[in-house]
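Input set for joint prediction.
Command: fold jointly, output C-alpha cells.
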Amino acid sequence: MKSEENDIRLKQLMKEIRLESPGPEFASKVMGAILAEPEKKPAFVTEPFLGKKFWILLSSFVAPLILLLVFSTPENGPGVFQQFFSKVPTPDWGPVRELFSTALGQQGSLAWTVMLILLGGSGLILADKLFEKRKTLSLS
Amino acid sequence: MQVEELQIIERIRNGEVNAFSHLVNKYQDVVYSIALKVLKNREDAEEMAQETFIKAYRSLSSFQGKAKFSTWLFSIAYNTCITSVRKKKFQTTSIDQVQLDDPDEEWDSFGLSSEERSRMLETALKQLPEDDYLLVVLFYYEEQSIEEICRITGLSESNAKVKLFRARKKLYTIMNDLMKKEIYSEP
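C-alpha cells >
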C-alpha cells in the first residue's frame, strides 16, 4: 500500500521534470537520414485480400459440387436438390455415373455434410478477412 | 493515445514517410536521455538515438501493434545501447555504488517549491546508475507497466520489481542527500 502511494507520488513528481534533449536539429537529421535512403524504405508485405487458405477451401467445395452436378441422379440429393435434378435433364455418363451414384448412395448424407462444413469454413475465413480489412481501414 | 500512434504508423505504411517525425518528436527526449546515461557523451548519445529511430523506421513493418509503440521503440533503444556498450566495453557504474541508508526511506520534499523539487529530481536522476535510471524513467516518467519493462529489458517480472524498488530507494537517498547539502550550505 505504502509502495503504491510512493509510486503515485513519484509519478506526479516526474511529470514536473524535463529530460535531457538532443540538439534542435535532431528530428530533421533523423528524417533527413530516412528520406535519403529511398531504397531502404520499409518493405511492407502486401497480403492478398483472400488468402491461399480461402481458395483451397473454396476449391475443395466447388470440385465436389461440380462432380455432383455432373454425375448425380435425382434420388441422390436431398430435398431441394431432388426437385432441381428432376427438372434438369442429366447426361448419360454410363458406367462412370453408375459408379458415382453407388458411391454417393453408400455415403448417404456424408458428402453433403462435408460440403456444408467446407462452405461454412470458407465463409468464416471470408468474414474474418472482411472484418480485418474494415478494422485496418477505420484506423487509417 | 495508442490509437493515435497506430494511425500515424498506418500513414507511414501507406507511404507518408514524414508522419514519422511525429513519433521522433514525441520520443526523442526519452531515447536520447537513456542513450546519454549509458554513453555519457552527448555526440555518441545523439548518434545512438538517431540510429534507434532509423532502426525503428526500417523495422516498422514488423511492428504488429500487440505492444505499445513506445514499448517497442524503447526495446530497440535498449538493445542498441546494450550493443554499443558491449562494442565499446563501456565501464558501467556498479549497482551498489549508491548506499541505501534506510530501507524505509522516503523523500521529504516538504517546504520545497515546485521548481526546486523538479531541479532536485533532475539532479538525482543524473546521479543514478544507468540500470536504475532506465527503470525509473520507463516506469515513472513514461508510465510503462512492469510487464512492458520486462519486454524492453528482458528482465523477469520479479527481478524488475526488485530492481525498481531498489532504484526508487536510491533515488530518494540521493534526493535526501541533496536536500541536506542544500540546507547546510545555506548561509
